[in-house]
Amino acid sequence: MSAVLDPHGHAAHGGDVHDEHHDHPHGWRRWMFATNHKDIGTLYLLFSFTMLMIGGILALLIRAELFQPGLQLVNPELFNQFTTMHGIIMVFGAIMPAFVGFANWMIPLQIGASDMAFARMNNFSFWLMIPAALMLVGSFFLPGGAPAAGWTLYAPLTLQMGPSMDAGIFAMHILGASSIMGSINIIVTILNMRAPGMTLMKMPMFCWTWLITAYLLIAVMPVLAGAITMTLTDRHFGTHFFNPAGGGDPVMYQHIFWFFGHPEVYIMILPAFGIISQIVPAFARKKLFGYASMVYATSSIAILSFIVWAHHMFTTGMPVTGQLFFMYATMLIAVPTAVKIFNWIATMWQGSMTFETPMLFAVGFIFVFTMGGFTGLILAVAPIDIQLQDTYYVVAHFHYVLVAGSLYAMFAGVYYWLPKWTGVMYDEARGKLHFWWSLISFNVTFFPMHFLGLAGMPRRYADYPMQFADFNAVASVGAFAFGLAQVYFFLFVVLPAMRGKGEPAPQKPWEGAEGLEWEVPSPAPFHTFENPPRLDATATKVIG
């Protein structure tokens, strides 16, 4: 098949691309001035992995301190800086940008669009993250060290921090602006640039979950901006929003923060649901069970996420009626989440299953995320939560959801789409080693924390009584093993693929995979779908 060229000399929808090396800049200009969605997606993914490593180093410093009772390495103030910055860097620097990287790479390919809607804004929203990241990491070197108020930045601690608090607030404003721009781009791309014939209810689930996530981001990032701006004016301009001495209320900060913070939790998991919903049908060689119910469940999660925020605040003295409302609302949000898990299991049921690395991570995700969901249900029960508030049980719960949830889904997505991105197949044995190494070391790290929490060990403390020593030692060993697994993943799976080392990938490396991304060559050419593809009735294949 010879290339079909449009008037500009570019190859139309994924034909053989002969002008591949002549129609785009090379060297640093290609990345600095990138407007191609694939290059920007790559930049996001590399940035987020860098931040994952920085946040991971902070986590390992925390675990090294907690390896045994007594103060080993750092004083309690620096320990609090580590816990605070680990959380902020992982949430805003690692998880969210990684999913935006997936969105940039895959959404145009999956809907048959030539690129994202606003290419230059796409570039801007990425490069905004660099100064923000430098400010976050550099805050350790400011007078008084990094912020030490917890990643939630609760008043009154934030009102007492040094200048690094202002740097952190500025960085989060910039990251929020980047998220809003990225979200606008994703919404406009999905709503306006789908190939003819691809109705909304024929879109891949990954596009659906990102469309809903993007609306969530636009709704809640300004709320976070408001909370941290009020903190800033309390610090420097004499307002007393959160200062009781001037008639303010520190609990009001918690309400505003968690009105952002709980939808944020779903912002970090909905794209993961989308990735898993692409992978499970491919390796079960079946259509996704209950596609429409998955779409409605995703929408329900997004809507319900706005009415559960105060379940983080059962111990702040809210009235019993308030506790009951947030308790039942939190239990209700488990229903659409369970619908998704049942649908994935039903998709696998009697399928022709094979367990390549993407599917291993997908099944690992379902298993461990479900455990995290159950501990969330337990914490939703107000009387139990009052006992477990701010203990290691909570730490175990949200790491099961975020590490085994978001991170495992990202790994699944990387292994699934890496052949399409790089044009080479990763080494399957290395991928499986990475999976088992990660799964075992993750559970060794975080499963004991449930018992520590049930026994009453509070989180964010640099020291602890002797009775907690054994489980902490086990968790610390697991944490170092888990961190090492991710270094192995980058050095021995990602880097060789980026360098083109490995077997050439076919156009469609997975037998059961469906979707437009498998209709273009591997690696995906620089320009794809310049003329919109004509779709078959299922909106998954190009005809003509």
UniProtKB/TrEMBL annotation:
A Gene Ontology CC term for this entry? Answer: respiratory chain complex IV
> What are the Cytochrome oxidase subunit I profile domain coordinates in residue numbering?
31-536
EC number(s) recorded for this UniProt protein:
7.1.1.9
Q: Which membrane topology term applies here? A: Multi-pass membrane protein
Tell me the SUPFAM superfamilies matching this sequence.
Cytochrome c oxidase subunit I-like (SSF81442)
Primary place of residence?
A: membrane
Q: Name one GO biological process term.
A: oxidative phosphorylation
Annotated region (Disordered), positions in chain: 1-22, 525-544
Keyword terms of this UniProt record: Cell membrane, Copper, Electron transport, Heme, Iron, Membrane, Metal-binding, Respiratory chain, Translocase, Transmembrane, Transmembrane helix, Transport
Basic and acidic residues composition-biased segments: 7-22
The UniProt catalytic activity note for this protein reads: 4 Fe(II)-[cytochrome c] + O2 + 8 H(+)(in) = 4 Fe(III)-[cytochrome c] + 2 H2O + 4 H(+)(out)
Q: Which InterPro entries match?
A: Cyt_c_oxase-like_su1_dom, Cyt_c_oxase-like_su1_sf, Cyt_C_Oxase_1, Cyt_c_Oxase_su1_BS, Cyt_c_oxase_su1_dom, Cyt_c_oxidase_su1_bac
Question: Which pathway is this protein engaged in?
Answer: Energy metabolism; oxidative phosphorylation
Q: Which residues cross the membrane?
A: 40-62, 82-105, 126-149, 169-193, 205-232, 252-276, 288-312, 324-346, 358-384, 396-418, 439-457, 477-498
First-tier enzyme category under EC: translocase
Q: Name one GO molecular function term.
A: metal ion binding
UniProt subcellular location: Cell membrane; Membrane
Give the protein family: Belongs to the heme-copper respiratory oxidase family.
Annotated PANTHER family: CYTOCHROME C OXIDASE SUBUNIT 1
Q: What does this protein do?
A: Cytochrome c oxidase is the component of the respiratory chain that catalyzes the reduction of oxygen to water. Subunits 1-3 form the functional core of the enzyme complex. CO I is the catalytic subunit of the enzyme. Electrons originating in cytochrome c are transferred via the copper A center of subunit 2 and heme A of subunit 1 to the bimetallic center formed by heme A3 and copper B.
- Designated name of the protein: Cytochrome c oxidase subunit 1
